[in-house]
Inverse folding.
């Protein structure tokens, strides 16, 4: 008999189209919440949260961000499974480890880069030790934040970003800075809109590639961790 799971996608996109479209196809019967457009409930009630990217910055916070971070902190403390993507990765880090867990990146990333895994973890089961993926961020998790280094495990890094993925201790809570979930058209649009130097977008787009298999693998691994946890075998 099929058991229903409560998937909640917290869509932090600021535009009307939203980013839930990148996560919902990987989940069954997901509910979508858009804090920038509809506010927040008192609690994020779900077996699992997926927190999307955003054009917003956690270091220049919109008025809804403190409420979201409080909700995520409370959900994390309850043992809710969480997958944060880019902005969501940073929200998770701040919610669990404090505001100092995120900084302005000294080396912002835009385009397609090589990412190296750091050790084994269920989220990355079946993922190559080195893979290429789209990245677009000016903020990053601070690898020197004491609370972060004491409580998190870094799972992936790139040349210009020391924390491309992390896990909160042994909990079923992960953040990934890179954008495996993002479609190629959306990635191209971001490159074209955010490239500050003339001709830079053209250079970056020569390396453009979609990563649907990587996205499918990460979401499948996350779903599996939730199924195990809900059935009673997961870390709480």
């Amino acid at each position: 008999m099929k058991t229903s799971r409560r998937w909640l996608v917290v869509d932090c996109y600021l535009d009307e189209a939203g980013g839930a479209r990148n996560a919902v196809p990987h989940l069954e019967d997901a509910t979508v919440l858009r804090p920038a457009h509809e506010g927040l409930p008192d609690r994020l009630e779900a077996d699992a949260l997926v927190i999307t990217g955003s054009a917003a910055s956690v270091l220049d916070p919109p008025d809804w961000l403190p409420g979201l971070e409080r909700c995520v902190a409370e959900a994390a403390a309850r043992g809710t499974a969480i997958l944060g993507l880019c902005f969501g990765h940073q929200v998770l880090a701040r919610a669990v480890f404090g505001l100092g867990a995120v900084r302005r990146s000294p080396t912002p990333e835009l385009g397609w880069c090589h990412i190296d895994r750091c050790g084994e973890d269920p989220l990355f089961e079946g993922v190559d030790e080195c893979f290429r993926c789209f990245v677009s961020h000016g903020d990053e998790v601070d690898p020197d934040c004491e609370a972060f280094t004491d409580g998190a495990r870094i799972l992936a890094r790139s040349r210009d970003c020391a924390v491309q993925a992390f896990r909160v201790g042994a909990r079923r809570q992960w953040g990934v800075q890179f954008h495996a979930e993002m479609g190629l058209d959306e990635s191209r649009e971001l490159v074209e809109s955010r490239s500050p130097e003339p001709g830079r977008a053209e250079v970056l787009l020569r390396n453009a590639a979609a990563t649907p298999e990587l996205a499918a693998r990460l979401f499948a691994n996350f779903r599996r961790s939730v199924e195990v946890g809900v059935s009673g075998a997961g870390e709480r």
